[in-house]
Amino acid sequence: MKRKGLLLCIFIILLIFVTGCWNRRELNDLAIAVGIAIDKSGNQYKVSAQVVEPGEVSGKKGGSVAPVTLYQATGDTILEALRQMTTISPRKIYLAHIRILVLSESLAREGIRDSLDLMSREPETRNDYFIVVAKQATAEDMLKILTNLEKVPSIRLFSTLETSAKQWAPTTTVNLDKLISELVSEGRHPVLTGLNVIGDKKIGESKKNVETVPSPADMQYSGLAVFRKDKLIGWLSDEEGKAYNYIDNNIKSTVGHVNCPDGGKLSLKVIRSNTKVKGSLRDEHPRITIEVQSEANVGEVQCHLDLTKTETIAEVEKLADRKTEEFIEKTIKKVQQEYKIDIFGFGEVIRRSYPKAWKKLKKNWDQTFVNIPVNVKVTHKIPYLGKISNSFLEDMKE
Amino acid sequence: MPENVKISIRQFTVLVMLITIGDSILVLPSIAAFEAKQDVWISGLIGLAVGLLAVYIFSMVGKLYPHLTLVQSIQEIFGKWFGTFVSLMFLFYTFLSVVAHTRETGDFVTSVMMQETPTQAIQILFVCIVIMAVRLGLEVIARTGEIFLPWIIFFFLILVILLSPQAEFEKLQPILENGIKPVLHGSLSCIAFPFMELVVFLMIFPYVNQPQQIRKGFLQGVLLGGIVLIIIITVSILVLGPDHTARSMYPTYSLARRVTVGRFFERVEAMLALMWTLTIFMKVTLYFYIFNLGLAQLLKLKGYRMLTLPVGLLLIVLTPVISPSITYFNKVISKYWPYFDLTYGLLLPLLLLAVYFVRTKFKRSTN
Lengths: 398, 367
Prior knowledge:
The complex is a heterodimer.
Chain A: H1 2-17, E1 30-41, E2 44-52, H2 54-57, E3 68-75, H3 78-84, E4 92-94, E5 100-104, H4 105-110, H5 113-121, E6 130-134, H6 139-142, H7 153-167, H8 176-184, E7 191-199, H9 201-204, E8 217-228, E9 231-236, H10 238-247, E10 254-259, E11 265-282, E12 285-301, H11 310-339, H12 346-353, H13 355-361, H14 365-370, E13 374-381
Parallel strand pairs in A: 1-4, 1-5, 5-6, 6-7, 12-13
Antiparallel strand pairs in A: 1-2, 2-3, 7-8, 8-9, 10-11, 11-12
Chain B: H1 9-21, H2 24-36, H3 40-64, H4 70-78, H5 80-113, H6 119-136, H7 138-163, H8 181-192, H9 214-240, H10 242-247, H11 251-258, E1 260-261, E2 265-266, H12 269-298, H13 305-321, H14 326-366
Antiparallel strand pairs in B: 1-2
Helix pairs in contact in B: 1-7, 1-9, 1-12, 2-8, 2-9, 3-8, 3-9, 3-14, 4-5, 5-6, 5-12, 5-13, 6-12, 6-13, 7-12, 8-14, 9-11, 11-12, 12-13
């Protein structure tokens, strides 16, 4: 009996501890941030958080108010600014569901290193969002535009980047871990995709933006920002971005065209592509070989070509090889001459294959990179032509 | 003190495996990768090899007095006064291990999951269950291990299989970038944390029902546990990379956060955290049991159970006392603790063997 009484007492005492989480936060106590934008204002950070309006995105109702709202605060550190938002927002900003982190170009030119520590230290944040740079604009503007198809603009920014990287290739998806590993690496400098607003920003901020068929304002990804360590030093164009992704083996699918011998154009859908970057040493001088193997289908024919002949296919393959080789080589030249830093990770390649030589090379790797000979070899395979073989253009009499 | 319990050799093997995994699964990748970088898997292999050797030595020590626990055989070998002193030192080591592991559990939960919860709340809950398990005795602890094992293996496989698409084998290159030295440095913690701490099993050798199979079971358990650890270490490097592994406090947790299957099976880290909560629980429980048992045997008490509550209180009080901050704690754990482990895991058994043989020889020659 005494034992039972004692047990009962213990159970009652234990009850105090097992009532659930110590500091639980219910869904309606949270301001779920989906996008964060960081600008520099003077010596301080201006942080903007795009927060979802739960009533607007859930269920069938909604429509009267914007699906998201934007809180902004300025502070000496990012965390201070985020916490200062509680003076405007009724709820604490919850960071676990961020989809996109936008850094302004001016901040990027000054250096991004200090803005990233919070994101990797804070236990709430994860590694499943993308980091982009607002091209020639403030970062906060990127979170102000309302969007169609996807109600929450940050989620749309995430999906847009993911889809365009998969299907079109000049953009690249960079998450925090990848960015940090490139920042600390001695043989590679990071790049981030650029983002800007096209159209009328003022209308874009209001509901009118999603009421008309063509949205007056939209956000578009374009170009890759080139960083020297953590400082933005320039931009790559879309084609150069595509070349970057070819070298980085990021191509999932893309479309490109070749000029036919008779002047028209023929476009090719790349179905899969694989790149191998190899380093070699000749008398302590490193050289790089890039081998791309692409499989592409004929997508569109705008010229006279007899696609029923195997020789024609071989000819188109050659044309595609040469064209891809050309723009990859051109991009490498440009980066070597204009930016003079290794964004392609050639240093990492050398480090992996020749760790001993790398110890000497790494001290002034970027100078070495400028003159490094690169050999690009692209092989296309065109296995399929689509639904039809020869184009009807062949049978049309002029 | 007649402690009339018996566990089977299978239970013994399971216990060895779980305690080898113990807290190492959570902290070892980070500590070892700090020194060995991408070659940390080699450190793990070295650790396992040395660990198997150490376990062989443990079983030799156990065979000297198969019916006595370590505390008793220390006194038998070293004599009453010096033996008592060494036993006390050994018990101090076990107790400090219990404190450190409890602290580690609390730190882990507060650092990554429940930031604002007082660590004490978690530790008190944890220690309550540990005390309960220890009061129920070794047989119950061993059976608990058997029940936990399938779950731990299940979660382990889930983690490894779901992360395999994210593995990048080039992260292992270049092999031996800075020579063998950092790898050996890294292997120190790989030897000490999982394997040297197994010395406490010398305290439960007499309770295994088939003493002649102890060595085999011990080696099997260590091999299985070691393989699990090496796989986790390698997966950390393959998925997170050496820099990130060394930088994160709990790389295995970062790994679990990476699990994502088709955008709907994700954010499962809290579930996967169950795996190492269970192994740490087993480790703390066994250490706590051994400390109480050893103390009772040293003080010639009738049973160890009456010690559990006061020692538990002591444990709760000591956890915040042993270190003021996580930086201090991590520094002690990574810089000094391996040597602490080696002192009791290697030096003590070797000393016991040496003294035993010298004494028996001396006795024979005088006879």
